[in-house]
Amino acid sequence: MTARRAVRHRPGVLIAARWALGIGVLVLLVVGLNGAEIGARIGSANGALVAIGVLGLTAIHALGAAAWMILCRQLGGLRLDWAAGLRVYYSAQALGGVTPANIGGDAYRVVVVRKAGLGWGAAVAPVLVQRATSYLALALLAIPALALLAASSRIPQPILAGGILLCGLAAGLAATMLFAPARLAALTSRMPWNRGRAGAGVQFDPAEWARPPSRSVAMATGLGVAFHVGSVLLTALLVAAVDPSATGPAVLAAITIARLSLALPILPSGLGANEAILALLFAGLSLSPQTALAALLLGRVALVLTTALGTVLLLFGRQGIRRGDLSSAASTS
User: Fold this and answer.
1) Is residue 12 part of a domain?
2) For residue 186, what pLDDT is reported?
3) Residue 209 to residues 122, 132, 190, 213, Cα–Cα distance (Å)
4) Rounded mean pLDDT of the chain?
5) CB count, 10 Å around CB of 148?
6) pTM of this prediction?
7) Is the residue at 189 inside a domain?
8) Is 309 a domain residue?
9) How far apart are CA 62 and CA 74, in angstroms?
10) Angstrom distances, CA of residue 99 to CA of 14, 15, 39
11) How many domains, in total, are found in the chain?
C-alpha cells in the first residue's frame, strides 16, 4: 500500500499531519522571534483587556449560530429554538476546531439536520451558504485593508501580493459555492459522513439542490461581515493589551488580512499561517512582530475555550435535534 493510499484509508493520519504542520510553523515562529520576549509580553499584558478579548472571541460564535439557524429556516424549513441552535453550533465547534477549515463542524451540523428528518439538500445548503458568505465577507473586508496598507505603509510588495492572492482565493471559493452548488453538492455525497450509504439508498441527489435566494446570501454575508469585524476588533484589543501603542487603522487592516488564512483548507483554524502573516505585516509596519505573536497566542485561548465548551456539550449535553427544539411551523419536507 502506497503512502497516499494509507492516508486515504486513515484520514486521522492526514489530520495529524496538518496539526503537526501548523504547530511546527508556530514553534518556528516562537523560537525565531525570541520566545522569552514573547512570554514576557504575554505575562505583562493587561489582564482585563485579555479577559474581554478572549471571552468575546468565544461568545462571538453566537453570530455564526444565528446565521446558520436563519439559513436553516430559509433554505430548509427547519425552525430551531435558540437554546438548541446554540447547543448544536457550539458542539460543532469542538469538531471544527481540530479539523482543517472547520470541516468537522460542518459535517456534524449536516448529520444533525439529516437526523431531524430533512433531505440532503436542506441539510447541506445552510452550511455551504454560510461558509461561502463567510469567505465573501472576508474578501470584502480584505480589499479596503489591502488598499490601506498599500497606500500608507512600507509593506513589501511580495507580502501584499500574497494578501491579494489569499483575497482572490476567498472570493473564488465563495463564488464556486454560490454559483456552482450542484457540483459541490455532488462532492458532498462522497464526504466521510456519507461513505458506505450508497448501497442503502441514502445518497445525496444533486437535483435536491437549488441555488440560494439573494436575500439569504445578503443576510448571511451581513452576519459574516459582523462576525469578522467583531473578531478583528477583539483581536485588536488583545494587541492593545500586549502593547498599548499598537493601535490604529493599519493594525486593524493587518489583522483583517491575516484572517484570510482561515480560507486555507490545510491548517486547523489557520494555525501557524495566521500568526506568520500578522508577524510579517507588523514587521512591515515597523511594529513588533513579537507583539503580533503574543496577541494571537492569547487569542488561541479563545479557540481552546470554544473547543472545550463544545466538547462538554458533545460529551454531556443532549445530542441532536428533538421535536421539542422545533417550532410548530417547522417543516421536515
Assistant:
1) no
2) 57
3) 8, 15, 15, 12
4) 80
5) 17
6) 0.82
7) yes
8) yes
9) 18
10) 10, 7, 27
11) 1
